[in-house]
Fold this sequence. Notes:
Two copies of one chain form a homodimer.
Chain A: H1 18-27, H2 29-38, E1 43-44, H3 45-52, H4 57-69, E2 73-78, E3 84-89, H5 91-130
Antiparallel strand pairs in A: 1-3, 2-3
Chain A binds a DNA duplex through residues 44-46, 56-62, 77, 80-85.
Organism (chains A, B): Sphingobium psychrophilum
Keywords (chains A, B): DNA-binding, Transcription, Transcription regulation
Pfam families (chains A, B): HxlR (PF01638)
Amino acid sequence: MTMPQPLRIGDAYNPDCPTRHILDRIGDKWAVLVLLTLKDGPARFNDLRRRIGAISQKMLSQTLKSLERDGLVSRAAFPTVPVTVEYRLTPLAGGLIRILDQVTQWAESHVGAIMAARRAHDGALADAMAA
Amino acid sequence: MTMPQPLRIGDAYNPDCPTRHILDRIGDKWAVLVLLTLKDGPARFNDLRRRIGAISQKMLSQTLKSLERDGLVSRAAFPTVPVTVEYRLTPLAGGLIRILDQVTQWAESHVGAIMAARRAHDGALADAMAA
DNA sequence: CAGCATCCATTGAGATACTG
DNA sequence: CAGTATCTCAATGGATGCTG
Lengths: 131, 131
């Protein structure tokens, strides 16, 4: 019955497949955090840094650059002194943001269940150890 | 106007916040791949290994254990010789899977735009270098 | 302000070998 | 078959100091 079925899910398994790359992007903790922060509107570099808080300047810079490269964030520099730079989501990012929102929503409403599962699991493990 | 607003998005920024943990789970490349593979129905250890292909046995084992701990995957062992173990999604995982499906769907329909943005970006960069 | 360059510690993850 | 244990190397990512 169980035919081999080498690949499914587009070719998400194949590291060369572009779809997989999107997964990696979602998998990037900082990228997601930056996108969700920019959802509130355009923001400047140190502004983002402060709002995200835990991110290092190196990571923020790196993350913004890759997001810009992927066309999800746009960068605008104004020739003030000192220079002012503003980042904002592109229209392309819109659909992704909507999905990310669903993720956080799902997370918030199921964290309880997951933590409970975890406690149950760890408890069972402890019991097994004790026996 | 721009009031401080220390934290948003639940407390996703806070590493201690449980919501953040879900983000990390989604951020786990292997976890996502395993969940999506299990969507097709229950599967055994080496079965998963073959289907995912690129995953090492260590990572698969590790991933399955953490997914089980979080109550997203259940494990059933049958006392055959040699032992047979079957993994399957729990009901809790159902909603998450639906969102992951949306992610892959979005990915597949926007990969083109992203690759184009990237080419444009890299091209512009190359031009700047040449100038 | 908005970054880049460098150094360094921690972690991630593959390969390999072994067990019930 | 379904894992565990160990070793090792590469990549993450933080801290620091500097620049236009």
